[in-house]
Write a structure and sequence with these properties.
This protein is of the alpha+beta class and about 650 residues long. The chain has 5 domains: about 5-105, 3-Layer(aba) Sandwich (Rossmann fold), CATH 3.40.50; about 135-200, ATP-grasp fold, A domain (Dna Ligase, domain 1, 2-Layer Sandwich); about 205-450, ATP-grasp fold, B domain (D-amino Acid Aminotransferase, Chain A, domain 1); about 460-580, Glycoprotein, Type 4 Pilin (2-Layer Sandwich); about 590-659, OB fold (Dihydrolipoamide Acetyltransferase, E2P), CATH 2.40.50. Strands 14-13-10-11-12-15-23-21-20 form a 9-stranded antiparallel β-sheet. It has an 8-stranded antiparallel barrel with strand order 25-26-27-28-29-30-31-32. A hairpin with a 2-residue loop joins β29 (about 535-540) and β30 (about 545-550).
Amino acid sequence: MFSKILIANRGEIAVRIIKTCRRLGIATVVVYSEADADSMAVEMADETVFIGPAPAAQSYLVADKIVDACRQTGAEAVHPGFGFLSENAGFAKRLAAEGIVFIGPNPHAIEAMGDKIESKKFAAKANVSVVPGHVGEIADTAHAIKISEDIGYPVMIKASAGGGGKGIRVAWTQKDVEEGFPAVRAEAKASFGDDRIFIEKFIESPRHIEIQVLGDKHGNVVHLFERECSIQRRNQKVIEEAPSPLLDEATRAAMGAQAVALAKAVNYDSAGTVEFVAGQDKSFFFLEMNTRLQVEHPVTELITGVDLVEQMIRSAYGEKLAFSQKDLKIKGWAMESRIYAEDPYRGFLPSIGRLVRYSPPKEGEVDGGIVRNDAGVREGDEISMFYDPMISKLSTWGETRIAAIDVMGRALEDFHIEGLGQNIPFLAAVMDQARFRSGVLSTNYIKDEFPEGFAGTPPTDYQRDLMSAVACAMHRIVTARSAPQLVRDEWVVIAGSDKRNVRLSNGGSSFQVEMIETGRKFGLTDVEWRPGLRIFRAKFDGKPFTVAVKPAAEGFTVRHRATTLHVLVLTPRSAELHEKLPPKKAADTSKQILSPMPGLVVTMDVTAGQSVRTGEQVAIIEAMKMQNIIRAERDGVVKAIGAQAGDSVAADEVLIEFA
């Protein structure tokens, strides 16, 4: 077995690989950029090598620097993780020429299947059903428009070397192609160093299902069943699960056999994923093959018990697979939620900054299930604008699909992050939706279920009771410390638009709560909270729960899953006066265009004195390797420009002011 492996990646996947290497007794080397100097992966690795500035094109994507790091440290092999150089056949060949083992498939397999254009040609020759599209080179935007019109809208514009949701646009009209093609090409060049693009028919209401394959250097290939990855936003996977609620045994076997046949055709000898687009009728078409470890591999590991990183290492070392297809079984169900640094309340725009608080849920066996959190960050770390916005991958396992969802819901409740926007409330909302729980999914799910964007969910009767009880308990605990003479049992509670009288008795870590108007009584027990904490844990009517809390005038802001309420705890007299307060007026920003996110101004497309029409492109802001087009929301004449190309801007910074 290898004695030392270099990990040519960063963040949570670098940490994930280190954990397996430690278990196998293999020393690790981590390369790092300026932005990652104090990262968790750097702290955990046995050795580290600095490889340059923060931009990936100057560090993680420079093969010479990775090879030099291997020479410096004596690393025998390189694990590329995912992204960066993981699907670069030239890099794999370079390592081989240097006598360094690439922990991934052979260069031929990468070339045949890793390139999205070549993989479709290869699949077609192998009589594998593929999605209709154009798989040749595309010269320019005019050529892209002609191809799109020949295929018929809608079409998908994709980077040939793409992955991770980067370099993808869906075009419904010619205008979409005119704007999308150059944007995708720019993203592809920046993210992968390869600006080749292909276009294919976009199948409406599809499901995204992928088959995990695993091969060795002795001709053995197996599949480890499927993952459903249909919950996507901007072509970026958000929630994955294994197995898929769509498939029956016959369809699963057919997809698995096709994936294995395709892998064998190119002598595939590592972990890889054959992706399919599936119809609700269980029809399926080959989409592409990712010749690397997938972000969502934990759900496969949870239902099979197979460590995919270990198997990649063993295969690269030349060992035979220790199991055959008949040895593999599906046990239970697994879910994965990607915790992103993005603000779901602002159109899921990237949110960079410092993790002022980072408190993940307890891992291991929980309430009959399993919780696993793959992360590469700690409290105090900074989420940089230079890389992917993922904070961690939260995975859960249960005996059934509903059990896995329920464990995930509780784990999301227990996940507390402060300092930047994050999508935990949104993920919790999906877990609670009847449609998601029923398994009726499609890649349009988020668009269908949240057509106006995400604004949280309205409180249920249970949540109003729970939040009212929590606020009263916190108010009593605070009052008992600061002014015990003011402690009382009855309060007027205003929770959002709901007003009620609440009686709170006992104290310490347990309370009895009564909603006076209705007579409903609840026990609030096993309370874990003290002033200053932002998490309140307890049992409400015997059921464990966690809410995020922070103090507000005369009360608290309380969030339970996707529901947030400002809860006031008032005396009867204060409640009377509160009703007389005038509503607060919002600031007038109608004559300004604000940056919706922190990022880098790529272009400023207007000048002072210029007339602008509604919907016109006025700037492009880049954040987390994604280019975001900023459009005017009204007609007007530009009075002043607040930023120029090359400037870094904060969220809500004024970009343009109208006269």
